[in-house]
Amino acid sequence: MNTQLKSVLYVAIGATSYGVLATFVKYANNQGIGTAGLAFSQYLFGAFILSALVFLFSKKSVTPQAESKSLHPKIKLMLFGGFSGLTSSFYYLSIQYVPVSIGIILLMQTIWMGVVLEFFTARALVNRGKVLGAFVAIVGTMLAAKIFETDIELNLKGIGFGLLAAMSFTGMMYGTSRVGLKLPNLVRSQYLVYGGLIVIVLFWNVQILQEFNWTIFITWGVFLGCFGTILPPILFNKGFPVIGTGLGSIIAALEIPISVLSAYWVLNEEISNLQWLGIVIILFAVVMINFQKNANL
């Protein structure tokens, strides 16, 4: 298998891992397990495992001098990793009020939010194709979120949390694609998760003490930690540098149908034909926004 194909698979598996998270968090919520305990278990397990992997595989290759020089980017990674903790918290709160199939659509508003952020930070990178793609994504969202279906009651609190998750996700993607790029992939993932763990503790604080126990950690923490804080960053860091952000972003959009299908299979959420049409339009918008970038690779 060549390097290009391997990298495509890395990104696809990482997106699939992210895609199943919300479904199983909501499933656990339905079993009476609190979100604070789940989120803390997820990030605590991720921090443990990534620290162990860095200790085993990265320590010998980094000199003390290199470590001191790389302290500043590590702090930056932790700060942007904080957006990861906010994303998980807002996303998990959102799906308490809206179906997972709508929650993932709200989270993926980062598609057009990223274009807006890019416009303000580097206007030269924004072209008509990206702007048109952003508008197409919004139209697809309106369909996928069932706005035009009269029998659907929209929960404003769920929508609000979903949009906050998208904003946090946009900030995380922006920072992590630009900070600490010279550090080993494991080290980058480690400090991103450290930042996420700190924010999770600050965000949920007392609720963690009320809801966390080691049974949740050993069961749900291991599962959510593997699929939410260990596999995706490692796989994305391996795949994106080879295939580029354009093609990588298109493949990473697999997270949307994977999340919708997992909610259908596990939670028995109904997915209408209009909603599937909206999802297809959103995926088309992702291709539009990233096509020019990918064509230049």
Task: Classify the beta-strand content into a percent band.
Answer: under 5%
Structural class: mainly alpha
Q: Rounded to an integer, what's the Rg over CA atoms?
A: 19 Å
Uncertain segments: 61-68
Instruction: List the helices and strands in order.
Output: HHHHHHHHHHHHH
**Percent in helix:** over 70%
Number of helices: 13
For the biggest sheet, the summary is: none
Q: What's the average pLDDT? A: 85
Termini separation: 21 Å
**How many β strands by DSSP?**
0
In one word, what is the shape? globular
What does this structure look like?
The chain has 297 residues and is mainly alpha-helical. Helices cover 81% and strands 0% of the residues. It has helices at residues 3-30, 35-57, 64-69, 71-94, 100-107, 110-121, 128-144, 156-176, 185-204, 206-211, 214-252, 255-267, 273-295. Helix 1 runs parallel beside helix 12, helix 5 (100-107) packs across helix 8 and helix 6 packs antiparallel against helix 7 (128-144). The longest helix has 39 residues, at 214-252. The chain starts with a helix and ends with a helix. Residues 61-68 have low confidence and may be disordered.
